[in-house]
Design goal:
By secondary structure, the chain is an all-alpha fold. Helix content is 60%, strand content 2%. It is built from 21 helices and four strands. The strands form two sheets. Strands 1-2 form a two-stranded antiparallel sheet. Strands 3-4 form a two-stranded antiparallel ribbon. Strand 3 and strand 4 form a beta hairpin. 46% of the residues are buried.
């Protein structure tokens, strides 16, 4: 008879489990109820928190966080239907959700207290209505009581892995054995619902009208998403998306297509268009860095080459070339120019490796910026107007459709920014298709082999130089493609837009960070990383002087706690973690696009 040693579950506070769970549930309920009461006596604070019975502004974030905490706490009672939300355990997710609720509420209270009235005086604690105290005390009770719940997720995440493994086994089992598995139509509906929720969350973040609301949004989303990840729900949805890959891509494109129809503000639609430009360039860089493993610190120069080439031939009155190509010809010109520059720069430098290659590419980026700055008719030929750039780039006209004017589509009005967003979405879809197909090909597997060990790959007969040059050229072409649209979106191109580092993306540092933050070698990682790195500086402009400092702190924390990135593939998790700590489906390829030999023995 085999004896099994039970796993010891410890709590951070010595409280009875039943009492701790009841207090957590009560605290979450109080925090939720408090959002329906007034929080301030005055409407000086943005969002007007003086209304009773109708949550607004930051109250909505506390309401959502408290509702999530309450659902997770109730799932611990074994309520039928709620256990589906927590396949990996309930107690650890409750702690995170409760902490997020408390921090969101506490931040709101502090923001109200330090707000100044019209006379320049602080509002102070006296301006707080009972509703604020009810939510604050309730959220504090929930987070303290949650610390008394036993830890149901040991350090090796055994509970999560076992629950998810049973779920994945049910997905792969034959039809008679899939008693617990959902039908395919239900799985597809879950995927569609997940992308619908993601669209709503993203739209809510872009639509935030003041910095206090956006900061609260970041706190609530960060802790809410982490709680759902610890609960195993994110991994469960990931298992479904891995099973229905084509449906997932279609759902993602449909969700992205719907975004401009939710926007009435041109500024927010413009943010969406710029995010797509940034994300597309980051995905092109992912070919170079993520698949081929080539550290490129001057990649933004290829974006600049495409933008300048398109600006010169798009009919700008200040363009020294003086020609106006149709849009398709301008796109091909920008992509071809970037391709040529990629080959010209890559051919003599790609025999270098590691830090030496990084230094050379950094030098190329600076050479490009200084060169276009010098082509002003004084220091060199008059080609780029020097530091003034090429302004007044006309709006696109494609098949009679003027991208510079508003259009009514199905009762919705799409402005200029929305038009360019949809155009950029088409190019993003093309780049995603190119990345996916190239990554799944024999060439993509060769890139991964070169990335992992170039010497071993060469010994196996792979022409490393030729394939690295191909990756460099492909990445440059994709960047030039995005640059052609960027030139028309921004009306002008200047050398300052294409530097190594700055407070406003895209630049080489932000592009590389987007790939690392999102997850190197994955399809969705750079898109997520680029969206975060563009959206946060755009919404927190008052912190512009400290953006690079905070950006560096965020990268340090990421490298410490999740070095594989926000969206990790199995290869990176095998590299950075023990095999038992994987939180992606076991049947997921070792990259989002390419399968290869596992590095488990490395």
């Amino acid at each position: 008879m085999t004896t099994t040693t039970p796993t010891t579950h410890t709590a951070l506070l010595p409280l009875p489990t039943t009492a701790a769970r009841a207090a957590t549930t009560t605290g979450a309920a109080l925090a939720l109820i408090g959002t329906f009461l007034a929080w301030t006596y005055t409407d000086t604070f943005p969002g007007d928190l003086t209304v009773t019975g109708y949550p607004g502004g930051l109250q909505v974030l506390t309401l959502i966080s408290a509702a999530l905490t309450l659902l997770l706490a109730l799932s611990g009672y074994g309520i039928k239907g709620l256990r589906w939300l927590t396949p990996g355990g309930t107690n650890s997710p409750v702690r995170l959700a409760a902490l997020g609720t408390f921090l969101t509420t506490a931040y709101t209270v502090v923001a109200v207290v330090v707000t100044k009235d019209d006379n320049g005086n602080l509002l102070g604690l006296i301006e707080l209505e009972p509703g604020a105290w009810v939510s604050l005390v309730g959220s504090l009770l929930a987070v303290v009581a949650a610390l008394g719940l036993p830890d149901d997720q040991p350090q090796d995440d055994t509970a999560t892995r076992n629950a998810l493994q049973r779920f994945r086994d049910s997905l792969r089992a034959p039809a008679p054995a899939r008693a617990e598995a959902l039908p395919s139509w239900a799985e597809i509906l879950i995927i569609a619902a997940a992308f619908g929720v993601a669209l709503y969350v993203f739209t809510y973040g872009i639509d935030t009208e003041y910095a206090e609301l956006f900061i609260g949004y970041v706190i609530a989303v960060a802790f809410g998403f982490t709680a759902l990840s610890r609960a195993g729900l994110v991994a469960r949805v990931t298992a479904l998306t891995s099973k229905h890959r084509n449906v997932t891509l279609a759902a993602a494109l449909v969700a992205a297509f719907c975004f401009p129809f939710t926007q009435q503000n041109e500024e927010y639609a413009l943010i969406g268009a710029n995010i797509l430009i940034f994300a597309t360039v980051a995905l092109g860089l992912n070919v170079v860095v993520g698949l081929a493993g080539l550290l490129d610190l001057g990649y933004v120069a290829f974006l600049g080459v495409g933008a300048y080439a398109a600006a010169l031939v798009s009919g700008s009155p200040l363009s020294p070339v003086g020609v106006q190509f149709p849009f398709w010809a301008a796109v091909l010109t920008g992509a071809a120019a970037s391709l040529v520059f990629g080959v010209v720069i890559g051919a003599p430098t790609l025999r270098l490796r590691g830090d030496y290659l990084a230094i050379v590419t950094l030098g190329f980026g600076e050479i490009f910026r200084l060169t276009v700055n010098a082509l002003n008719g004084v220091s060199g030929p008059d080609l780029t107007n020097g530091s003034q750039g090429i302004p007044s780039i006309p709006d696109l006209k494609l098949l009679g459709f003027d991208f510079g004017t508003s259009h009514d589509v199905g009762g919705f009005t799409l402005g200029r920014s929305a038009n360019y967003y949809l155009l950029m979405l088409f190019f993003t879809a093309v780049v995603v298709l190119v990345f996916r197909r190239s990554g799944e090909s024999r060439i993509g597997r060769a890139w991964v082999a070169i990335r992992e060990d170039e010497t071993a790959a060469t010994a196996m007969g792979i022409n490393a130089f030729r394939l690295k040059l191909l990756a460099f050229a492909l990445g440059a072409t994709l960047a030039g493609l995005a640059g052609t649209v960027q030139a028309h979106v921004s009306y002008t191109v200047t050398p300052e837009q294409y530097q190594f580092a700055g407070s406003v993306p895209p630049n080489s540092a932000f592009l590389l960070a987007a790939v690392i933050l999102g997850g190197m070698g994955t399809l969705s990682g750079p898109l997520v990383g680029a969206a975060l790195l563009y959206l946060i500086p755009a919404k927190l402009q008052f912190m512009q002087d400290y953006q690079l400092f905070l950006f560096g702190i965020a990268l340090i924390l990421l490298m410490r706690f999740r070095p594989e990135g926000l969206v990790a593939d199995r290869r990176k998790q095998l590299e950075f973690h023990e095999t038992g700590q994987l939180d992606v489906p076991p049947d997921t390829p070792l990259t989002d696009a390419a399968a290869g030999t596992t590095k488990a023995g490395a």
